[in-house]
């Protein structure tokens, strides 16, 4: 695996291994939370993970407001939330993963009904659900998975002229902001574009043969580039293939962040 750090604006590259550090994403924010009666509606959401959404965090997925969804960049970001009603709410954090977007301007997240109920004190779940909207605090956290970043070939792909992929099990507290693809053994990298504000990256007329990917990953001020020095997709990939392809990468870093912006509660954790 090759990793290069860079100052994101200047792109001046030097070799390094990134390690988790404090960042402005580690702030606690105040907002509200609502729930959706159907788990399926959120799982089959705008990120286009489909049934694979359940592999990211079980039933605890969420639709996020546009400021957190960020036109698809926020797909698969992990947050922990807890509600604040002292009569109904536990002080226990619940982890959620973003798989969809919603436009309710009263809340930052919408979760399945079951997830909403898990925020309650024992035997208070039904009473909490009757409120429908509750005050919460939340923070973005590291995503931790027991496996490497993987590639899923999207059903919109058309071999060999159009390749669309999604990336699952992105660990750490970072965003994938650029993806390139090349034939293994060649250095003619071609860039993919993010499709329709989703988690899908696509390219027309992709390279042939065994394919490798490289990524620009960032979180705020600074970022890094990394790629597996091996084939990830086989020469004859198929649309909507059930198989997931292991990149061999563990994205568990957080890029350096200048932390120039204050937190909502002036609180860093």
Structure characterization notes:
With 269 residues, this protein is mainly β. It folds into two domains: 2-19 and 145-246, Immunoglobulin-like (Sandwich); 29-141, Beta Barrel (Barwin-like endoglucanases), CATH 2.40.40.10. It is built from five helices and 16 strands. It has helices at residues 39-43, 53-57, 66-69, 113-117, 125-131, and strands spanning 2-7, 13-15, 29-36, 61-64, 78-83, 94-101, 109-112, 133-141, 150-153, 162-168, 175-183, 190-194, 200-204, 211-218, 222-227, 245-246. The chain has a ten-stranded antiparallel beta sheet, with no helix packed on it. A hairpin with a 5-residue loop joins strand 1 (2-7) and strand 2 (13-15). It is elongated, with a radius of gyration of 19 Å.
Domain count: the total is 2
Number of beta-strand segments: 16
CATH H-tier superfamily of the largest domain: Expansin, cellulose-binding-like domain
- Biggest pleated-sheet summary: 10 strands, antiparallel
Number of helices: 5
């Amino acid at each position: 695996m090759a990793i290069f750090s860079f100052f994101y604006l200047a792109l001046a590259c030097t070799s390094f291994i990134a390690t988790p550090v404090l960042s402005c994403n580690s702030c606690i924010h105040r907002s509200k939370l609502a729930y959706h009666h159907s788990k399926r509606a959120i799982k089959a959401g705008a990120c286009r993970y489909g049934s694979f959404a359940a592999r990211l965090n079980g039933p605890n997925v969420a639709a996020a407001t546009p400021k957190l969804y960020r036109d698809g960049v926020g797909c698969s970001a992990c947050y922990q939330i807890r509600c604040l009603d002292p009569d109904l709410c536990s002080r226990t954090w619940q982890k959620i993963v973003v798989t969809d977007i919603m436009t309710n301007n009263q809340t930052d997240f919408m979760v399945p009904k079951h997830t909403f109920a898990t925020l309650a004190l024992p035997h208070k779940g039904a009473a909490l659900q009757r409120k429908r909207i509750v005050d919460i605090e939340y923070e973005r956290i590291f995503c931790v998975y027991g496996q490497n970043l993987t590639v899923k070939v999207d059903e919109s792909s058309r071999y060999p002229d159009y390749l669309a992929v999604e990336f699952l099990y992105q660990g750490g507290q970072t965003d994938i902001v650029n993806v390139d693809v090349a034939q293994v053994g060649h250095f003619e990298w071609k860039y993919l574009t993010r499709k329709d504000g989703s988690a899908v990256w696509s390219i027309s007329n992709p390279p042939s043969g065994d394919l490798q990917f490289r990524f620009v990953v960032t979180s705020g001020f600074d970022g890094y580039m990394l790629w597996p020095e091996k084939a990830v997709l086989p020469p004859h990939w198929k649309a909507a293939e059930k198989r997931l392809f292991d990149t061999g990468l563990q994205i568990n870093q957080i890029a350096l962040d200048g932390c120039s912006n204050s937190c909502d509660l002036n609180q860093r954790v």
